[in-house]
């Protein structure tokens, strides 16, 4: 569902809007406000499990900060809200305020029904252009995960896994992530 403005809205104008209405998420895409329902229980469950694993590692090694669902002004006309985002300790100063002031070191998107094209094509290109160094895509239904690393302005596959595999994804190559614990149980 989308709400189309009479004229394009800038990212700056979007950032001045009040907080999202209950059970609605807003993003700005090419000047147009895109509204979607709040996350499903399954989406939230997988996000929380991965955030917990990564947050414990970050905290134990004093690597930086992790958060979720924070506005990222990826261009003058686009504001995205990654499911999870991480800033290294050296760059955490960028994450102060209502929105972040520069690209995160890592953005994570969890594919939901209907979001695959957005996460794999649109956000993939936007995050690369914005300078997000690492981009993970997790599909809890297909039970897959991919980690992309930015090199020369383009993403290259850094690692991937499926099913019950344990993976090590950049930028946390010393962290083992058990995909079987993240993904939705098999029927």
Short synopsis of the structure:
The chain is of the alpha+beta class and 187 residues long. 24% of the residues lie in helices and 33% in strands. Mean pLDDT is 89; it is low at 1-5.
By CATH reckoning, the class would read Alpha Beta
Which CATH architecture?
Answer: Alpha-Beta Complex
Strands, count: 14
Number of domains: 1
What CATH calls the topology is tt1808, chain A
Which percent bin holds the helix content? 10-25%
Describe the structure.
- This protein is of the alpha+beta class.
- The chain has one domain (39-182): tt1808, chain A.
- Helices cover 24% and strands 33% of the residues.
- The protein is built from 4 helices and 14 strands.
- The strands form 4 sheets. A 6-stranded mixed β-sheet has the order 4-7-9-10-11-12, with helices on both faces. A 3-stranded antiparallel β-sheet has the order 1-3-2, with no helix packed on it. A 3-stranded mixed β-sheet has the order 6-5-8.
- Helix 3 (116-130) links the parallel strand 9 and strand 10 (134-139).
- The longest helix has 21 residues, at 41-61.
